[in-house]
Amino acid sequence: MSNYIAVFTGPRVLTGILVALAIAGLGTWLLRNRLSSPTRRLLGFLLIASVGMVVVATLVREPASGTCWDCLGDWGLGRLRSGQAGTDVALNIVLFVPPAFFGTLLWPAPLRVTGIAALSSLAIEVVQPLIGVGANDAMDLLANTAGALIGAGTATAVRLLRDLFVGRRVSLARAAKLGVGVAVAAAIGLGGPAWSASARQAAAAERLEQLFAGSTLADFERHRDTTWDDRLTEFFRQSGRPTVVGYRGEGKALERYTWEVYFAVRCVVAEWTPDGFTTTKLGGGACTDPLAGH
Q1: Per the count of CB atoms within 10 A, which of 77, 86, 167, 231 is most buried?
Q2: pTM strictly above 0.90
Q3: Residue 46 CA from chain centroid, whole number
Q4: What is the pLDDT of residue 3?
Q5: Element (H or E) spanning 182, and its range?
C-alpha cells in the first residue's frame, strides 16, 4: 500500500490533479448554458474532474517508457480466472465509482453510463502499453466496470430517494427494476467468487483424501521429503497454486491450502496424526489463524 501512496502523492500526480481541476473548471464554464442550474453545473464540474482523475491515475502517473507491442496480446487472463485480488483491484474499483456516480446524477441512464465507463476502461487498457505506463490487464477492466456499476447504481438509488422525499411519483416498475438490478449485481459479485472458491476447496479436499487416505504421522515423517513431496507439489499445481502454510509438532503435522477468489477466502487443512489422516474445510478468518491452534 505504501508504494501506491508514494506514487499518488508524488509531484507528477499532484500536478496532474491541479491540471484536471483547472480543465474541469474551464469545461464547466464552457458548458454553462447546457448545464442550466447551479446543481447541474456542480455535477458537471465533479464529473469532468473525476474523469480527469482517472486519466491522471492511469495514464499520467508515471513517465512514458516506450511502446510494448507484445503486451497487447497479454491481458493477464490467468489472474482473472484465479481471482487474485489485491490492493490494486480495490483501487481500480474505487477509481471508477465517482465518474459513474456523477454521470448518472446528470443523465438518468445507469446502463448507458456503465457501458461508456467500460469502453473508456478498455481504451485506457489498450493505450497503457502503447505509451509505456502500466500494462493492459483484464482484471483492471473488470474492476473498473464493477466500480462504474457501483457508482451508477448508487446514483440511481439517490435519485429514487430524492423523488420520494420531494413527493414525486415513483413508479413501481422503476423501484422494482432498481431492486432487481441490485440483487443481481450482489448475487454475481458476492455469490460468484464464493461459489468458485468453495468449488476449489471441495475438489482439493477430495483429491487430498485420494492421495493420503489411510496414512499416519509416521508415514508423513518417513516420506515427506521423498515421494510425498512430489505428490504435494503436483497437488499444488493442479489446485491453482494456493497459499500454503505448514506446521509440525504436538503429535501432528498440518498443511493448510488457502484460495482467495476475489474477496472470498476458503482453505483446506490436511492433518496427519498417529491415528490417521483427515481434512477440514474452513473459510474466512479461520484460514489465517495460527495452525498450532487447529
Answers
A1: 231
A2: no
A3: 25
A4: 58
A5: helix 172-186
Helices (H) and strands (E) in the chain, counts: 11, 4
Give the distance, in angstroms, between the CA of residue 221 and the centroid of all CA atoms in the same chain.
Answer: 40
Chunk the chain into consecutive blocks of 10 residues (it has 294) and report each block's average pLDDT, rounded to whole numbers: 61 87 91 88 93 90 75 67 65 90 89 91 88 78 87 84 65 64 65 76 88 88 75 80 84 88 85 92 86 66
| DSSP code of residue 70 | G
Question: Quick check: 80 and 139 in contact, CB under 8 A?
Answer: yes
Strands 252-261, 276-283: pairing is: unpaired
Assess contact for 259 and 193: CB atoms under 8 A. Answer: no
Cell numbers at residue 37, please?
A: 442550474
What are the sequence ranges of the domains in the chain?
A: 2-170, 197-293
Give the chain's length.
294
Strands (E), 132-285: 243-249, 252-261, 264-273, 276-283
Instruction: List, in sequence order, every residue forming a beta bridge with 249; answer none if it has no partner.
Output: 252
The label of the residue with cell 466500480 reads: 147
Q: How far is it, in rounded angstroms, from Cα 191 to Cα 193?
A: 6
pLDDT at 293: 60
Do residues 154 and 101 touch, judged by C-beta distance below 8 A? yes
36: cell is 442550466
